[in-house]
What does this fold into?
Amino acid sequence: MRDKQIVLSKRLQMLADMVTPGNRLVDVGCDHGFLSICLVQQGVCPRALAMDVRTGPLAAAKEHIAQNALQEQITTRLSDGLCAYQDGEADTVVIAGMGGRLMAKILSDSIDKAVKFSELILQPQSELAEFRRFLRAEGFCIVAENAVLEDGKYYFAMKAEYAPWKTSAKTPATEDGRRQDLTDEYGELLLEQKHPVLQQYLTFRREVLRRLLEQLTKEQTDRTRQRLVEVEGELALVEWALSRFE
It folds into this structure.
């Protein structure tokens, strides 16, 4: 007998909402398996493959899957990234809950597999600009973005598709050459949508940077002067992003 329906956290629900109905799912770094369980329970995904590099979370995922009598529809597998994934097992890959550099490594280490997914649902916890540049360089095009605030932390998610013919056509040229930096840092689609959570994040970040700038100007060392330049640059980018909401 199945337990009651899984209720996802806001950040996981954001990912679930991006998955195309009818697609088979592979969740890389599945943790306790709740995303796979929820998507199968709700009939969004007919099948799911929950993978993790750690045995503890994978055992917990297997237990939760059994509690919900979904063993026939959800498979668990120990895997370092996409290493244990076999071509054709899924249409959608979800990678979340880790830094952008690690996510980029997971994709680049199995790039021949990554380019075959119909969609990639991605939620880097850090290095967002670097990660967006990686996607573009590898031929992936971001087709949707979203953001939520949960328990005092901001989460940003993106849906990407392999479409090198689109990414190669994009040009970063602007009146001052900074537009690509802006969209890489904060998300072109989020800026276009004037997403309220992004605006909230930018306002928060502006106050943090202003306080840091005030502190740095009181100190006069080579290290603080260099950091001062960096903070001033980031603050200018934040101010420019916020001007998009006016």
Notes: The two ends are 53 Å apart (CA to CA). The chain has eleven helices and seven strands. The chain has a mean pLDDT of 92. The first helix runs from residue 10 to 18.
